[in-house]
Please model this.
Amino acid sequence: MLPVYYYVGLSAVLFIIGALGVLIRRNAIVIFMSVELMLNAANLVFVAYARYYQAMDGQIFVFFVMTVAAAEVAVGLALIVAIFKAKNSINVDQISTLKG
Amino acid sequence: MFLSEVTSPGGFFYLVPLVVFFPVAGLLINIILGSKFSEKMIGLVACLAPGLSFAVSVLLAISLSWYPEGVTIPFLDWISVGELELPWAFRVDTLSVTMMLVVSGVGTLIHIYAVGYMHEDVRHNGDPKRYQRFFVYFNLFIAAMMLLVSADNYLMLFVGWEGVGLCSYLLIGFWYEKGKDGIGNAIAGKKAFITNRIGDFGFLIASFLMFWYFKSFSFDVVFEKAPEVAAAAPGVIFAMTMFMLLGVTGKSAQLPLFVWLPDAMAGPTPVSALIHAATMVTAGVYLVARSYALYVLVPEAQTWVAIVGGVTALFAATIAVGQFDIKKVLAYSTISQLGFMVAAVGMGAFVAGMFHLVTHAFFKALLFLSSGSVIQGLERGHHAVEHDPLLRKRLKSEHHFDPQDMRNMGGLRNRMKTTFWVYLIGALALAGIFPLAGFWSKDEILAEALHLNPAVYWLLTIAAFFTAFYMGRQIIMVFFGEPKSEPAAQAQESPAVMTTPLIVLAVLSLFGGFLNLPFIHTFTNWLEHTIPLEEAVEATGEVAAATPGYMFGGLNLIVAGVSFGLALIAIAVSWYFYTRRTAEMQKLPANKRPDDPLRGVLGPVFTVLENKYWVDELYWAVIVNPYVVISRFLAEKVDWAFWHDFFHDKIIVGGYNGLTWLLSKPIDTSFIDGIANGLGQGTQELAATMRKMQSGFVRNYALSVFIGVVVIIGYLVLQLR
Model:
C-alpha cells in the first residue's frame, strides 16, 4: 500500500493548483472548477487519513463535503447564468460594482 | 349620709368639670343657633352658662366645707411623653373654689347687665348682628377663666391663661372698625395682646425651668419637691419666681407692663368690668397665691413682688387723679388696686391679697358697670337732645360729644338715681370707708404690710389716700354740681336689666367685707386649708402679743384708723376742690377757666399726671420706635437689599448662571460634543482610508481570504508546535 504522504502530497498539489486557479483566472467557470478542485483535494486527504487510521469519521465528512459541493454548484451556476444575462460576459474583473 | 360625705372625698366634687363645660355649651349653642335666636334668647343662654357654673361652684364650696382639704379630680389624659404624664385634672380646693365663685358669680351678674347694655350698644354702634358674637366671646372667656382657676398643673393653667388673653384681645377689639382713625380699637387690642405676650414669655420660661428641675407641672409635685430643689440649686426657684413675676406684671397690669390696661377700655363696658377689672387681671394675683410654696422659699423674690405691687399701686393712683375719661380713671384705679393685691401676695399676706381680690371684684365690677350705665345715660340724653329741635340749638358741638368725658357730666344724681347710689357705694367701698368691703380688705393688706414690709406700707398708704381722692373727684364731677353739657341735663336712667345686677353688686360691696371680720376670720380659716399661713398668722400673733393695746381681734386699729382718716381727708379735699374751687372757677372768663381746679393748683404736675407720666411715649421712644427702626432696617436693608437684591439676585442667580455657562459651554459643547463629534469624524476618516481596500475585484478578495487563512493556519501550526 502506498504511504499516506503520497496522498497528502497529491492533495497539496491539487489544492495549490485550485487556489492558484481561483486567484489567477478570470473566467467564472474556470474559477468555479478550481474551487471544486480544492474541495476534492480536501476530500482526498480525508479519505486518505480515514483509511490510514481505520476510522470512518473522515469518510462521512467526505459525503458531507460532496453534498455541499453539489448544492454549491447549483447556486453558483445559477449566479453565473444571471451574471451572464446582465453583463453578457463571465469575466469576473468586469463585475466590480462593489468597488469602494 | 352626712358622715360618709365628711369622711370620703365624695360630695359634689365630681361635678367640677361642669364649671368649664357649661360656658362651653353656652357658647356652642349661641354659635350654632344664635343667628336664629332673638336677642332675649341669646342673652338667656349666655346668662345661664355662667349661672349654672356658679351653681356648681356653690355645690363645690358646700362639699369643701365638709372636706376642706380639697381634691384633685382627673378628667382626661392630655399629654403623655416619656416620663412626663400630664392629665387634664381639676384642682378643687378652697383657693380655686374661691376664684370659681368670684368668676362665675360676678360673671353672671355682668352677663345679665350686658344683656341690657349690649342691646343698646350694638344699636348705638350700628351693627345689631354682633350681639350674638359678643356673648359667644363672653362665654368663651368664662370657660377659659374657669380652666385657669381649676387647673391642677401649671400647663393647664397656662392654657386658661392664654385663653383669657385671647378673649381679652377679641373683646377689646370688639368694635374693631371704630376708635381713633378707624383702627384705634384694633390697635388697643393688639397692644394688649403683644404686651401680654411679653408677660407670657416669662410664664413660659418659668414653666420650662419647672419642667427641667421638677420633671412635672403638677402643683402637688412641684410644691413637694420645691424645698429640696431650693436647697440644691438656690438660684433656680428665684429665677422661676421672677419669671413668673414677669407673667404676673403682664396679666395683672403691673409696672412695667401695665400700659395695655388703660387702652383696653376701648372694649364695651361689660368687658372692662368682667375681664379688665374683676376677673382676668386678677389671674396674676391668683398665680402668685397658688405658687405660695415657691415664693415663701425665696424672700428676695417676695420682696421684688411686693415692691412691684407697691410702686404700681402708688404710680397708677396718681395717674388716676389726672384723668378725665370716666373709664380711664377706673382703669388706673384697677391697676392701682391690683398693685395692692400683688404687694400683699408678694409680702406673704396671701389671704389678705385674695380677700382684696374678692372684694375688689365686687366693687370694681360695680363701678365699671355703673360707669357704663352713666355713659349710656348720656348717650340717651344726647340722642334726646339731637332729636329735639329746641334743645338741639343749645348743643355746643354735636359732632364730637364724648359721653365718657367727665367734663361733660355733672348733676347726674338727679337724673340717674339708682346709678348714683350704687356708684356711691362702689366708690366708698373702693376708697376704704368703714364698714364697706374695701375697708376690711385694704386694711388687712396695710396691717400685714406694716410689719412685713414697712416701705411698701407707706407706698400703699399714700396710694390709698389718692384712691379716696380720685374717687371723690369722680363722684363729684359726674353726679354733683350743675350739668356741664346738654346731654348730661337730659340723661336717662338705664333699664332694670342693667340696674338689678348693679344693686346686687352694691349689696355685695356693702357687706363683702364681712367675709373676714375680726375675731371670726371666716375667709382666713377657709383659705388656710390650701395656703397654710404659719408665717403670717404667727407674725400677727406676735404683734398682738407685743402691743395688745391697739389690736382688735386681728384688726390693727391704728392702721385702720390712719387709713380711714386719710380716706376721709382725701374725700374732704376732693369735695373742697371740686365744689368750692369749681364754683370759684365759674366766675373766671371762659377762655381763662381751667378745666380742672387741680390744674390751677398743681400746674405742670397736673399735666404730667394727665399725660400719665408719658410712659406710653417713653415706651414708644425707648422700645417701639427702635424696634420699628430695627425692623425696618432688617426688612429693607438686610432682607431686601442684602438677601434679596444682593444675595439672591447677585450671588445665587449669578452663580447659577455662571455654573450653567460653565456646564454648557466648555463642558457640554466643547468636551462632551467633542467626544461625540470626534468619534463620528474618526470613523469617517477611518472609513475613507479603509474604502480603498475595496477594489471590487473578486480575486483580490479571494487573495485576502487566502492570505488570512494562511496566516491563521500558520499561527495555529506554530502554536501547536
